């Protein structure tokens, strides 16, 4: 299995520290988790939804992570409440992720993207022993296309 992560160069170690500090959709603060996506375009969108144009640093990198023959679990949209994308469900989803982290049943959990529910995000439990078998390398520097950050400004269809 190959998956992607976009992060700042200084945070390239996939240790879940950023998510531990602030929490995320699938984890509470204090619990490390590495957020990735099955494709690079979704990884980019997942970063963009949390940023303003003036906040985007220029030191992002795109990482490719690989995990061969590792047990994984999946949560599908069909298994979630009908309004799972609504902000009020954030604590419910974080609770599900926290349970998965604590139980350490496997190192990888696939979940639907909030941004594009038909797409898949890959969550890594850095505290699971099998996470040490996941390799990560920087594929390239990553800069967001300015048109994504200034949608509609002078554009013509």
Q: Brief overview, please?
A:
By secondary structure, the chain is of the alpha+beta class. It has helices at 17-22, 40-48, 90-103, 146-149; strands at 2-8, 34-37, 60-66, 72-74, 108-112, 120-124, 135-142. The chain starts with a strand and ends in an 8-residue tail after the last helix.
Describe this structure in words.
- The protein has 157 residues and is of the alpha+beta class.
- The chain has one domain.
- 21% of the residues lie in helices and 25% in strands.
- It has a four-stranded mixed β-sheet. It has a three-stranded antiparallel β-sheet with strand order 1-3-7.
- The longest helix is centred in the middle third of the chain and has 14 residues.
What is the C-alpha radius of gyration, as a whole number of Å? 16 Å
Distance N terminus to C terminus? 37 Å
The residue fraction in helices comes out at 10-25%
What is the tally of helical segments? 4
Low-pLDDT sequence parts: none
DSSP E strands, number: 7
The helix-and-strand class reads alpha+beta
Topology summary:
Layout: E1 2-8, H1 17-22, E2 34-37, H2 40-48, E3 60-66, E4 72-74, H3 90-103, E5 108-112, E6 120-124, E7 135-142, H4 146-149
Parallel strand pairs: 4-5
Antiparallel strand pairs: 1-3, 2-6, 3-7, 5-6
Features:
single chain; 157 residues; three-stranded antiparallel sheet
């Amino acid at each position: 299995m190959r998956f992607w992560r976009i992060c700042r160069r200084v945070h390239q170690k996939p240790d879940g520290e950023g998510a531990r500090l602030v929490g995320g959709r699938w984890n509470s603060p204090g619990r490390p988790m590495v957020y990735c996506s099955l494709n690079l375009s979704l990884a980019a969108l997942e970063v963009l939804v949390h940023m303003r144009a003036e906040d985007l640093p220029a030191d992002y990198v795109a990482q490719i992570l690989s995990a061969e023959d590792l047990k994984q679990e999946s949560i599908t949209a069909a298994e979630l409440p009908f309004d799972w994308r609504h902000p009020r469900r954030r604590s419910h989803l974080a609770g599900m992720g926290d349970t998965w982290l604590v139980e350490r049943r496997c190192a990888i959990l696939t979940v639907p993207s909030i941004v594009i529910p038909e797409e898949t995000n890959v969550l890594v439990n850095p505290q699971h022993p099998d996470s040490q078998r996941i390799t990560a390398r920087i594929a390239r520097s990553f800069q967001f296309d300015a048109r994504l950050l200034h949608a509609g400004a002078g554009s013509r269809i």
